[in-house]
Amino acid sequence: MDLSDLAKMKDMLSQATAMQQEMEEKLSETVVEAQSGGGVVTARMNGRKELLRLKISPTVMGSTPADLELLEDLITAAINEAGRKADDAMKSSTANLLGNLT
After folding, report:
1. Residue 55 burial by Cβ neighbours in a 10 Å radius (0-12, 13-18, 19+)
2. What are the boundaries of each domain within the chain?
3. What is the CATH number assigned to the segment(s) 31-101?
4. Residues 36-92 pLDDT 10s
5. How far lies 73's CA from each of 3, 18, 47, in Å?
6. What pTM, to 2 d.p., does this model score?
7. Phi, psi for 63 (deg, rounded to 5)
8. In what order do the strands lie in the sheet with 51-56?
């Protein structure tokens, strides 16, 4: 391996580090939102899958225990869907970044 190969490897490592930093920034800035129960529960999450906000419609106040169990299921569904959307956003961003390398 000669010096030009080492320089190329160093350049590639530098590019990979820059891409990782850019991806981390995009993940922090990406916000997705998902609803369940026809909008009774809304979950907002960033690309790092951190729950930013959970909104529950006031229509569920005064609900029965069975309604509260349903609400728990709706919360779980909204958070899981937001996680899937965050994954999709991350895959799209990654594809765009990788496309810039070619």
Report:
1. middle
2. 31-101
3. 3.30.1310.10
4. 989 888 999 888 888 898 888 888 777 787 888 888 888 999 999 988 898 888 888
5. 60, 40, 23
6. 0.63
7. -75, 160
8. 31-36, 41-46, 51-56
3-state SS class at 7 = helix
Give me the phi and psi of 40, to 5 degrees please: -65, -35
On the question of pLDDT at 102 being above 60, the answer is: no
Q: Are the C-beta atoms of 49 and 83 separated by less than 8 Å?
A: yes
Hey, CA dihedral for 63, 67, 70, 72, is it positive or negative?
Answer: positive
Give CA–CA dist 46/29, Å, rounded. Answer: 7
Residue scoring higher pLDDT (19 or 79): 79
Q: Are 26 and 93 in contact (CB under 8 A)?
A: yes
Alpha-carbon gap, residue 35 to 44, rounded angstroms = 9
- Give yes or no for residue 34 having a pLDDT over 60: yes
Which pLDDT score, from 0 to 100, does residue 49 have?
Answer: 83
